[in-house]
Amino acid sequence: MSVLGAVDYFEPWWVQIIKSVLLFALGLQMVPVILLAERKLLGRFQGRPGPNRVGPFGMLQPLADIGKLATKADFRPRTSIGWLFALAPIISILTAAAAFSLIPFGNTVDIFGTQVGLYGVDVSIGPLYLFAFGAIAFYGIMLGGWASGSKYSFLGAMRAAAQLISYEVAQGLALVGVIMTAGTLSLTEIVEAQAGMWYIVPQFLGFLIFLVAGFAETNRAPFDLVEADAELVGGYNTEYGGARFASFFFAEYLNILVVAGITTTVFLGGWMLPFGIDPPTWVDPIVVLSKMMAFVFFFVWIRATLPRLRYDQLMSFGWKILLPLATLNALVTAIIVVLHDNGTIF
Amino acid sequence: MHDWHPGNDQLVVVHGPQPGGAGGAYRIFGETLRGLKTTFARVVEGTNTIAYPEEKVPVYPRFRGRHRLHRFEDTGLEKCVGCSLCAAACPADCIRVVAAENTSEHRVSAGERYASVYEINLSRCIFCGYCEVACPFDAITMGNDFEMSDYLRSDLIFTKEMLLAEPFERSPIRAEGE
């Protein structure tokens, strides 16, 4: 208990179990919603209505997709490495769910006399936890691609590895500015620190860099060269089918939610509303979810607009533009923070 | 013949701007914003699709759809006299005609003979319309029906009765000049 107390686990154990089940259920509920929203929106962006046959307005389309995938045979190529091949989707989905637990949907609230935080965990290492699980998630992709024993999968996995190292440094440095300004690594405290002004204003450059890196982390267009359907036939998931493919798919969309949630938390003031509007506490999760949905819309918008970058273009963009900009951002922020603390400015 | 030397050709290669640098960053963000505007305009514009089974694009008057055989409107006799010119004209060889003699008791067509068997294998037909051109009596014409899919190949062999029957009003037709 003393260890849990040291990391601010003030909640009783049963609350944590309920919360984890709820969070997983929330993730499972959100993924079909954004799946459908993406396909509908993508259709609108291309002047067509999108899926509208299954159920009213095509709302049962994700259900039909899942049903189709779940009932398909679990096959694997003869050249694959069995247990790694089976392990990869599990790694993907577990890390995505673990990262999802980080998103704060609200502050600590009092439910029937029990203090409950509206988040999975409020770890004192916040963004580091995110990067840790984001990096492990790539093991899922890399192992999946490598263990498939197929050239296309292997190329996708190699690209995933190269992509990871070329954007993740910039992504981390983009958050350093926020962490220095807020003076804390806890995500709820970062949200609390944005009471006066959301960090998107003072840290606009950091926001842009984080967002661009977020596209790379979720393997979304224009950085979807890990799957690159046109050249790699799906990349790391070429040889996957059935429930395992569904796991990869689920993890991918859960990762979109994670990136949207983290960006909301870190740059868009989490559950705060602008102009001094202070709604009751029960609105907080709705505010966070709507901000996340706005990001999902933006993700789809970008996907409908930008073509896929070439492999070397992503590398040069990551190393030559994003990384120097992120470093500069962190440096300038550090100088301003020090001067501010000294009382020299402001 | 004049001599051609491969070395004489000048290959002009136009390079796009190199990625990276300040110009690259400007191009990336400026053009991205322009692209975002373009795609969002498509959302505002609305969809441009026709929900096919519910809405159908009317076919043009000269559209070559499923064949129809015709009767004389006044006497009710078949126009086809079983001359097999359509079968001869058919490049896909999908028409089969077996002719029989008309008798005074059993008169089917206006001519000497009639088609006792007239079959079109629609799974082979290429809808070229040569049969229509070849027919001396305008007995066979191309209709405007284009929904002919079926589950069995044998169901796609249309017999004389099927071709003579009035088709269901399934395909809307456009007026001339519309």
The CATH first-level class of the domain at 67-164 in chain B comes to: Alpha Beta
Mean pLDDT of chain B comes to 83
Low-confidence stretches of chain B: none
Radius of gyration of chain B: 29 Å
Please give the largest β-sheet of chain A: 2 strands, antiparallel
Q: How many beta strands in the DSSP annotation of chain A?
A: 2
Order of helices and strands of chain B: HEHEEHEEH
Q: Uncertain spans of chain A, ≥5 residues at pLDDT below 50?
A: none
What is the N-to-C order of secondary-structure elements of chain A (H for helix, E for strand)? HHHHEEHHHHHHHH
Oligomer kind: heterodimer
Secondary structure tally, helices of chain A: 12
How far is it from the N-terminal to the C-terminal residue of chain B, by CA? 54 Å
Structural class of chain A: mainly alpha
User: Which percent range fits the helix content of chain A?
Assistant: 55-70%
Overview of the molecule:
The complex is a heterodimer of chains A (346) and B (178). The model of chain A has no long low-confidence stretch (mean pLDDT 81). A two-stranded antiparallel sheet of chain A has the order 1-2. Chain A has one domain (2-51, 76-342). Chain A is globular. Chain A is an all-alpha fold and 346 residues long. Chain A contains twelve helices and two strands. In chain A, helix 4 (82-100) packs antiparallel against helix 5. Chain B has helices spanning 21-45, 85-89, 130-134, 160-164, and strands spanning 67-69, 95-101, 113-121, 140-142, 157-158. Chain B has a domain at 67-164: Alpha-Beta Plaits, CATH 3.30.70. The radius of gyration of chain B is 29 Å and the shape is elongated. Chain B is an alpha+beta fold and 178 residues long. The mean pLDDT of chain B is 83. Chain B contains four helices and five strands. In chain B, the strands form two sheets. In chain B, strands 2-3-5 form a three-stranded antiparallel sheet. A two-stranded antiparallel sheet of chain B has the order 1-4.
